[in-house]
Amino acid sequence: MSDKRYTEDHEWVMVSGSEAVVGISVHAQEQLGDIVFVELPDVGKALVKGKEAAVVESVKAASEIYAPADGEVLEVNEALNDEPGKVNSAAEGDGWFFKMKLSDPSQVADLMDEAAYKSFIEG
Amino acid sequence: MDDTSASGAKPTVLYALHQELGGKIVPFAGYALPVQYPAGIMAEHKQAREAAALFDVSHMGQVKLTGADRVAALEALVPADLAGLAVGRQRYSFFTNDAGGILDDLMISNQGEWLFLVVNAACKEADIAHLKAGLKGDVTLSELTDRALVAVQGPKAAAVLARLAPGVQTLKFMDCKPVEVAGAACLVSRSGYTGEDGYEISVPADKAEALVRRLLDEDEVAPAGLGARDSLRLEAGLCLYGHDIDTTTTPVEADLVWAMQKRRRQEGGFPGAAVVQKQLAEGAGRRRVGLQPEGRAPMREGTVLQNAQGEDVGVVTSGGFGPTLGAPVAMGYVTADLAAEGTALQAVVRGKAMPCRVAALPFVPHNYFRG
Asked: Under CATH, which architecture does the B285-359 domain have?
């Protein structure tokens, strides 16, 4: 059973048991514009909810991507090194950033579901 | 990642058109201007390199100097040879301060009975105050607030504009002449801020929107915003005031000696001339250079540059991604001994040392029409 949640910082989190895949929302990539570089975390890095986990750079500027929950990086999307534009073309699919092990899956349950996120960005 | 509000910023005469075209409006130098349109910065950048892009640069200040002493009076404030500037020709220059620092950069053209100046929006008020205080003798300054300024830039610009104004294709790079464009009395210069061939058109404000709509009707033309303007000028190695040049940088340090013609370099007679002449003779301690990161991570403004020993030797003043190169590019200042092309340096990006090299400017060759 998987469940997609969104943070107020526009990351999405697809939870599957005690693991989660993290990326940025379609709305976020629209706001950022053309993505030219993604700095991914090292595998094994300890993540702290709300602290920097990755950096995404558009033509204009660099933006920090925050960890949606506490945990550890299990895998990163190496394809973004050569094709950062995947974040624009498939933000909530092939443009995922990293997979993490959740220390406390209940942290994710507090995040917005798709409907709540939709009203958040329209708000 | 937050939306930038343009509240409080002044609209240009083309504001409604920017909104109609879906421009993402941001405040810039006190003006509400599109940073990009729906096509996006990459596409707008390529538009200028491959066809023709249209920019609203009406935020820039347009100033007219008349009076018998206008040439000598302005020469006392800038290191350009204006006495030797033919009618219909334009020069790039800068206002210097007593320390040889740069107060603003500008374009100056000789319109026969008057001089036409185009200055940066952010410096406009200070420039005008500086001019009013510094211009001596019979000179009258008026700001041309009733004119908009639009740029058409790219390899197709000449063919497109010639349809609206037959003859403009014969203008040469840095010509600046009165031309009727689609029925509007304009001042057209063959110049720009992209490294491409193209024109900047000073047009009466009440004719600007019709002219821009007419240009956008042409198949080769699409609108471009501030984002593409910045990536284009960075690839072209052109300075952005307040970033690559400011009151703490001299023309020698900024590698702008080419913009100070021989007579002025020898005679001086502009603010800070003694400092500039000393640096011309003895060299400056640091120099503006191009920087090519070896990886894919952009090096942004403020990034510290180090030598192989890890000692600080300079700083990035403009940096981002060059869409035409498909790679990050930057400019910055380094100590003079490290300014040679090919010198290996490292840039400290988010605490990590990233290798980069001093690169020749421009990154993308200029495509000016010199006749």
From this structure: Beta Barrel (2.40)
